[in-house]
């Protein structure tokens, strides 16, 4: 029997871009465990543990918490097709690429979309979102962590503005989950979706999802089934949480991506089991500021103003006179380090650096700063000292 080493053409990379992020060995090993049947009781136990860990990651007690099969964008699709009806008036915050994508998704679902915009690189003032809600609404959607710009959206006051009008508050927390303070229940968020390949350090392919009672009540009140069969939560919950959906025994809906769920469970054991979420958020905060200080020595300026930054994603201007794309390419091909560039109106103007899970540590940041200095042709002593100082602070 011949053995084929499929890994020979896969290079070693240090993933410090906007995602996917570094996948730890423990998670890769979980992924490589033997596939078992998706109705096997042993798999049911793995599903239950995954759900419990996801509740910790979201900081929620929501019964309807599960990984949707598909990437983060599948979570967005699931959110909209379960909780937005054609003709609904939906206030949508747009201050970057992912807010735009959400507005597009909502419009395709037949919603009347009220866009509340802010410049790319700024948070949206809550007063403006609340003012848009005062004309009546069925839902509000905001991107909690805008990965295209590195901005965090404050949620204070939004839930009250929605709930007073019997509307749902829903968020995209793909990049914030596990890396930036996020408390679904305390913030009054009714439904949220996330991704696995940002701060959770799992390969892409699943979308952690949670929905509270208000959202589920809206779903149950539907007179006609929603337009998507695959993402219909009333069916999906019969597979993931039959005791909750009243279905009794678990019913086959679609074949869960078994091995990816092994990987997610292991990633969550690391992200929220080995480390309590508030201490993980604090580590991401320190890592963000340490790297920001180191890059400031090189003349890089952060796009997000103080207080609006998203800790897991540091978006900075490249140093003056530097060909940002050429440096990024050399970083990848010569040093095996991936960072991301700007998107849309910010293409060519930004480096977007992931500070996500295993990437929110001193060692990978030292590697990045050292390599960047070499490529730019400057001495790394001072930037590295700033990095170390930042980690001590
Ligand atoms: C990455 C990302 C998504 C999309 O996730 P995919 O896994 O690429 O489908 C959505 N929203 C935000 C904020 C993201 O960072």
Radius of gyration (Å): 21 Å
Name of the CATH architecture of the largest domain: 3-Layer(aba) Sandwich
What is the CATH class designation of the largest domain?
Alpha Beta
Bound molecules: pyridoxal-5'-phosphate
| Shape summary | globular
Q: State the share of residues found in helices, binned by percent.
A: 40-55%
Descriptive account of the structure:
The protein has about 400 residues and is an alpha/beta fold. The protein has 2 domains: about 250 residues, 3-Layer(aba) Sandwich (Aspartate Aminotransferase, domain 2), CATH 3.40.640.10; about 120 residues, Aspartate Aminotransferase, domain 1. The strands form 4 sheets. It has a 7-stranded mixed β-sheet with strand order 2-10-9-8-5-3-4, with helices on both faces. Helix content is about 40%, strand content about 15%. Helix 1 runs antiparallel to helix 10 and helix 13 packs antiparallel against helix 14.
Features:
single chain; 393 residues; alpha/beta; Aspartate Aminotransferase, domain 2; Aspartate Aminotransferase, domain 1; 2 domains; 7-stranded mixed beta sheet; 3-stranded antiparallel beta sheet; 14 helices; 41% helix; binds pyridoxal-5'-phosphate
